[in-house]
């Protein structure tokens, strides 16, 4: 297990569907280069991909995907400045989606993004304010016997 500390930040641009998945793929690749085990890198990759796609599909101006790597955990932060989520409980319901038609036509917006982020995290929290933006924090523990909930 790597004891390296690292901070990785990726900018995600709203609507840039051709780049969709590139930030999360780059993050997963960096984690593997650091010696992070495949299972943890996979979970972080899923969290990062879902967060990245939410930024791409919903955030007015895109946002940032950040990962802080420590010997204990990998903390992922996804943040944007709008439009926010009106009803977080509803948004956390499997299958619920407010994806625009163009995204649905491309096969995105199945309503599993936040659900998959939470499912692959040891810790998950979301804060959102309509018109101000959304902040999601997830953690993947690095100790082998701390499986996701």
Helical content band: 25-40%
The stretches of 5 or more residues where confidence is low (pLDDT under 50) are none
> CATH superfamily assignment?
Histidine kinase-like ATPase, C-terminal domain
Structural class: alpha+beta
**What proportion strand?**
25-35%
Shape: globular
Query: What is the CATH domain class?
Result: Alpha Beta
The order of strands across the largest sheet is: 1-2-3-5-4
- Largest sheet descriptor: 5 strands, antiparallel
Number of strands: 5
Going by CATH, the architecture would be 2-Layer Sandwich
Query: What is the CATH topology classification name?
Result: Heat Shock Protein 90
Mean pLDDT across all amino acids: 91
* End-to-end Cα distance: 22 Å
Order of helices and strands: EHHEEHHHEE
What would you report as the Rg, rounded to the nearest angstrom? 15 Å
Structure description:
- The protein is an alpha+beta fold and 149 residues long.
- The chain has a single domain, classed as Histidine kinase-like ATPase, C-terminal domain (Heat Shock Protein 90, 2-Layer Sandwich).
- 33% of the residues lie in helices and 26% in strands.
- The protein contains 5 helices and 5 strands.
- It has helices at 22-33, 38-58, 88-91, 101-105, 113-119, and strands at 6-12, 63-69, 73-80, 123-129, 133-141.
- The protein has a 5-stranded antiparallel sheet with strand order 1-2-3-5-4, covered by helices on one side.
- Strand 2 (63-69) and strand 3 form a beta hairpin.
- The longest helix is centred in the first third of the chain and has 21 residues, at 38-58.
